[in-house]
Amino acid sequence: MSAVPRSEKSDRASRPSGRFRRMLDRLSSSQEDLESEELREDSHASGCTRISECSDRQIVKVTGTLRTVTLRPRAGVPALEAELFDGTAPLDVVWLGRRSIVGIEPGRKLIASGRVAVSHGRRVLFNPKYELRPLGKE
């Protein structure tokens, strides 16, 4: 019989420990999981709000990678829409009256700030201030 209570044994067995265990976790994770984890770390390091924590009418500063960029007219006015993902949740970023913006393309990282709105159950940032992040690891 052991001196360690049974509940502590099960907690210890379920927790990853050591370098070898972390390496096994990374090898068994999908590419999407690894990219999401990297985006969450980047968001935390830059001092930005996580998209999953954004609520309606809150002024936020978020960062992430653009997944899609689409030209979609709204009420007859051109609108450039992009989906920003930070590893926790997606956020639609919309520039009204724009057909294109140089540098706004899928795969590009950026920091955007403005007031969040919730439209049809999705978080949206209209005409945000934005800063393009450098391409690659610089």
Question: If you had to describe this structure to a student in words, what would you say it looks like?
Answer:
By secondary structure, the chain is α+β, with helices and mostly antiparallel strands. 25% of the residues lie in helices and 34% in strands. The chain has helices spanning 6-14, 18-28, 31-45, and strands at 59-71, 79-85, 90-96, 109-119, 122-126, 129-132. A hairpin with a 7-residue loop joins β1 and β2 (79-85). The termini are far apart.
Secondary-structure map:
Layout: H1 6-14, H2 18-28, H3 31-45, E1 59-71, E2 79-85, E3 90-96, E4 109-119, E5 122-126, E6 129-132
Parallel strand pairs: 3-5
Antiparallel strand pairs: 1-2, 1-4, 2-3, 4-5, 4-6
| Helical stretch tally | 3
Determine Rg (CA atoms, Å): 20 Å
Across the major sheet, the strand order is 1-2-3-5-4
Largest sheet entry: 5 strands, mixed, barrel
General shape:
elongated
- Structural category: alpha+beta
Order of helices and strands: HHHEEEEEE
Q: Give the averaged pLDDT, no decimals.
A: 82
| Residue windows where pLDDT falls under 50 for at least 5 positions | 7-12
Distance between the termini: 56 Å
Percent of residues in beta strands:
25-35%
| Number of E-state strands | 6
**Helical residue percent?**
25-40%
Features:
single chain; 3 helices; five-stranded mixed beta barrel; alpha+beta
